[in-house]
Specification:
Strand order of the largest sheet: 1-2-6
Shape: rod-shaped
Number of domains: 2
Largest sheet: 3 strands, antiparallel
Radius of gyration: 30 Å
Strand content: 25-35%
Order of helices and strands: EEEEEEHEEEHHEE
Helix content: 10-25%
Structural class: alpha+beta
Length: about 210
């Protein structure tokens, strides 16, 4: 009876530009078990038990990449292969950084708002002195959930903060579990798609 063929699987990990290769063997590795890449870098080749098995890769890898040989006695083998060439699309870090056009720490007092259509000034430069980040849309619901299901904590000692102190600290930050966002004059809130400003800080607008 011929030995069972090994189970071989390759997965493209595009975000980190690698290919994961997994091999499951019926018989454990020995000193004759070897692995290599094809000359064009598109196939993974396994030599085991006198048999040769080949697996097509989802993308090309550098043919010169040195594959470490498996350890004797192992039956489950894994490799990470780098993709060949340079990336043709933005990296994950770049896409994540580009997804946020601005944040509170990047905005200053010299910011001015103008109407895109007519060019009239809506918020004068220097009007907004402080910028704060808006929380995510479900932030308030999560805070309410935490307060309803807050885990048991030991009674506060003289050296540990009390619930009242924690709530006071949250209030000092500008929002708490039951906060409704209503910006004060001179303070602006910002998230990925929204500016939240006080009506007092704006001009040349009509509120409907």
């Amino acid at each position: 009876m011929s030995p069972a063929k090994p189970l071989m699987y390759a997965e493209l990990l595009s975000n980190i530009r690698q290919i994961s290769v997994i091999v499951a063997l019926e018989e454990p590795c020995d000193l004759t078990t070897k692995v290599e890449l094809s000359a064009d870098g598109r196939r993974f080749i396994l030599h085991h038990g006198g048999e040769k098995s080949s697996l097509g890769l989802p993308e090309r890898v550098p043919p010169s990449f040195q594959l470490p040989n498996p350890v004797s006695g192992a039956k489950e083998l894994t490799w990470r292969l780098p993709l060949a060439g340079q990336p043709t699309h933005p990296s994950l870090d770049t896409m994540q950084s580009d997804s946020a056009p601005w944040s509170a720490k990047l905005l200053g007092e010299d910011l001015e708002f103008m109407c895109r259509a007519c060019g009239v000034v809506i918020v004068k430069r220097g009007t907004i002195r402080t910028w704060k980040d808006l929380p995510s849309e479900n932030w308030a619901e999560m805070m309410d959930f935490w307060h309803c299901h807050k885990p048991d904590v030991p009674e506060a000692s003289d050296s540990s903060p009390t619930d009242e102190g924690v709530e006071h600290s949250a209030a000092n930050r500008g929002y708490g579990a039951h906060t409704t966002f209503a910006p004060s004059p001179g303070i602006g809130f910002v998230d990925l798609t929204t500016f939240l400003l006080s009506e007092i800080d704006m001009q040349n607008i009509q509120v409907r």
